[in-house]
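From the pipeline queue, job 12 of 40. The input is one protein chain; the requested action is below.

Action: predict structure.
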Amino acid sequence: MRVLIHCVYYSPEVGGLESHIVGLATGLVRRGVEVRVVTSRSVVGSASEEEIEGVRVRRRWLPSRSPAGWFGYAIASAPLARRWAAWAQVVHAQSFASVPPARFATWGRKRPLVASFHTSHFLRRARRRIWAPVLGALVRWPDHVLAASREIAEVASRLGNGRYVEALTNGVDTDAFRPLEADDPEARTTRTVLVPRRLFEKNGVEYLVRAVPLIRSRVPNLRVLVIGDGPERPRLETLARELGVGPAVEFLGSRPHEEMPALLSRGEIAIFPSLMEATSVAALEAMSCGRPVVASAVGGLPEIVDAEVGDLVPPGDPEALATSVIRLLESDHLAETGRRARERVVERWSNDRLVERHLEIYGALLEGRDPRPSIAGDH
């Protein structure tokens, strides 16, 4: 089988969506599928063409990281997508911004088009009247539509006038993301929690910083490792100093994806204080590393987190966040909670299961069958 993936961002970009697409592409290659990826040259210095783990990657111009920039990239990438679609048997658009060039690539050709809708960008734009008809058309065009959470699936189906959209949670490489022995001398004298979040307002890291003084009132040796970068970082560093917890909150910046298993293994709990979320791949990766998760009860997070593997809290509520973190850190069953978190990811959301479902969808479309599962729902 030959599959063409069109996406805005791909490795060496770091992020949940990017790791999902890389995991899918490389997993397909391991199953004997030929995979090509059309993506943007979003990282300065990245090659215009290369092969990564058996995946042939070509990059095109990205004017900016914005809707206007995505539109420009769609135009710039369309000719290449069209040429490579002649080679492919299936074309898969990853995100709503990739649907137009992927549809152009398959126009007049008998090539099934699959689209996946991820991230809170889709949900935010779905609320705006000017975007609703555009997104509705993007939902109706493909032969099969996937969504990273039930919330996104429901919104996409509504925009598409009742079009069936399959909720399929993103996957994790459970072999790479596993509990490791952390090389961290400070772990013997501190209680460490992790915040693997890019520093954008929607990710709610401000509320974790505001919760730190409350947590330290019960856990004075608390240490917070913030893994990620973004425009909010200067304001958050200033806020930590103003609250008197600057030394306790370490901003590690963005780290390569391959370093994340070791970094996640340094903490006892991973925290996701999001104000808006799809299904967080970073949360799944933390769980796969055996870390209990405290997360906001928004978007797709309640689909993966509950009291058996961590806790859910109201978004934007530092007091509730602090209470949850303290309760877990003081629990005698913290390690068992982490073991259950990993077991759940391995059972339900491994990359192997994700790849298998995609192969089922691609095969059904190529044979002219309905790719919907026998029991519609989240896999």
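Job complete. DSSP finds 13 helices and 14 strands in the chain.
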